[in-house]
Amino acid sequence: MPTPATIIWRSGWWVIADAALAEFDQGKLVTIPALVYIDGWKRPEEARLALGEVLSRAQPAPRYWA
User: Fold this and answer.
1) Angstrom distance (rounded) from CA 7 to CA 34
2) Is the CB of residue 19 less than 8 Å from the CB of residue 11?
3) What is the average pLDDT score of the chain?
4) Does residue 50 sit in helix, strand or coil?
5) CA Rg, the chain, in Å?
6) Which whole number is the average pLDDT over 48-53?
7) What is d(CA 48, CA 43) in angstroms, rounded to the nearest whole number?
8) HSE (CB half, 13 Å, CA atoms) of 12?
9) Is the pTM of this model over 0.90?
C-alpha cells in the first residue's frame, strides 16, 4: 500500500487544472493527471464497452433456455 506521502501531490492546484484542461481539449471525458501510461485506463474501459455489446440483447442467453 502506498504511503500518503507518495500519493498526495504537493504542487499547486494550477498543475491539476492545466492537466485537466489539456485532456478536455483532446476530447477526453476523464482526467487522471497522475496516470502515466494511458493503457492503464484504456484496457478496463475497452472491456466495459465490449460488455455493453453483449449485455444489451432482447433475449436471455441460450444457457437459460435449458
Assistant:
1) 9
2) no
3) 80
4) helix
5) 19
6) 87
7) 9
8) 2
9) no
Residue 47: per-residue pLDDT: 92
- Residue 11 corresponds to which cell in the numbers above? 504542487
d(CA 24, CA 18): 10
HEC secondary structure over 17-46 = HHHHHHHHHCCCCCCCCCCCCCHHHHHHHH
Which pLDDT does position 20 carry in this prediction? 82
Grid cell locating 16: 491539476
CA–CA distance, 45 with 14 (Å, rounded to integer):
28
Q: Helix, strand, or coil here: 49?
A: helix
Q: Is 2 left (phi over 0), alpha (psi -120 to 50) or beta?
A: beta
